[in-house]
Design brief:
The complex is a heterodimer.
Chain A lengths: L4 E3 L2 E5 L4 E6 L6 E7 L5 E8 L4 E4 L2 E6 L4 E6 L8 E8 L7 E3 L3 E6 L1
Parallel strand pairs in A: 2-11
Antiparallel strand pairs in A: 1-3, 3-8, 4-5, 4-9, 6-7, 7-8, 9-10, 9-11
Chain B lengths: L3 E4 L2 E4 L5 E7 L5 E7 L5 E9 L2 E4 L6 E3 L9 E3 L8 E11 L2 E6 L3 E5 L1
Parallel strand pairs in B: 2-11
Antiparallel strand pairs in B: 1-3, 3-8, 4-5, 4-9, 5-6, 7-8, 9-10, 9-11
Classes of the chains: A mainly beta, B mainly beta.
């Protein structure tokens, strides 16, 4: 299966702390994306990192990619209660159809 | 506002019935996708379409069918052949951006089989 694996499956932190989520995958990728899902809703795109990039930032989000280890991490700094959601990594592949393969997600709870 | 509209939001079905989930987008995106999400799990691809009148099976296409007669619309039919259809169904669309596709999702349709 090309599906990614994420850890931890669940994470609970206090407001103001940092949250780190990890994603590992099995085959070579063209890009890796992170999405957020609030309970019972659709997913929202957060950030994309290409295979020739090592790190990207967007506001309080920092994403790293290590293609040699086939892994990525998402760091949310100074977390807020509103960050409570599930976070999914998604792998995009070269020369294909644009379809993404999703990981199983990390559920983040930020306590006020 | 541009976006993706899925309907209905909630749907109940008796065993043996076919149901059709609607997905409409006004983003002018070429590609559209259907994913299935089970509780506490990630998304699995059912079908996708890169262009009108063409579509391909994803990883779990058995028991489902789709059509793409218009660019804006990509309905999904859950047939009676799908043995475990209770799930959350997500439709998405995308446009190619320098070799990467970022998906825009609808709000989802929750199907429950009674």
């Amino acid at each position: 299966s090309q599906q990614g694996e994420e850890d931890p499956q669940a994470l609970s932190i206090q407001e103001g702390e940092n949250a780190t989520m990890n994603c590992s995958y099995k085959t070579s990728i063209n890009n890796l994306q992170w999405y957020r899902q609030n309970s019972g809703r659709g997913l929202v795109h957060l950030i994309l990192i290409r295979s020739n990039e090592r790190e990207k930032h967007s506001g309080r989000l920092r994403v790293t990619l290590d293609t040699s280890k086939k892994s990525s991490s998402l760091l949310i700094t100074a977390s807020r209660a509103a960050d409570t959601a599930s976070y999914f990594c998604a792998m995009g592949f070269s020369g294909n159809t644009g379809k993404l393969i999703f990981g199983q997600g990390t559920t983040l709870q930020v306590k006020p | 506002d541009g976006g993706i509209t899925q309907s209905p939001k909630y749907l109940f079905r008796k065993e043996g019935q076919n149901v059709t989930l609607s997905c409409e987008q006004n983003l002018n995106h070429d590609a559209m996708y259907w994913y299935r999400q089970d509780p506490g799990q990630g998304l699995r691809l059912i079908y996708y379409s890169q262009i009108v009148n063409d579509f391909q099976k994803g990883d779990i296409a058995e028991g489902y069918s789709v059509s793409r007669e218009k660019k804006e619309s990509f309905p999904l039919t859950v047939t009676s052949a799908q043995k475990n259809p209770t799930a959350f169904y997500l439709c998405a669309s995308s446009i190619d951006s320098a070799g990467a596709n970022v998906l825009t999702f609808g709000a989802g349709s929750r199907l429950t089989v009674l």
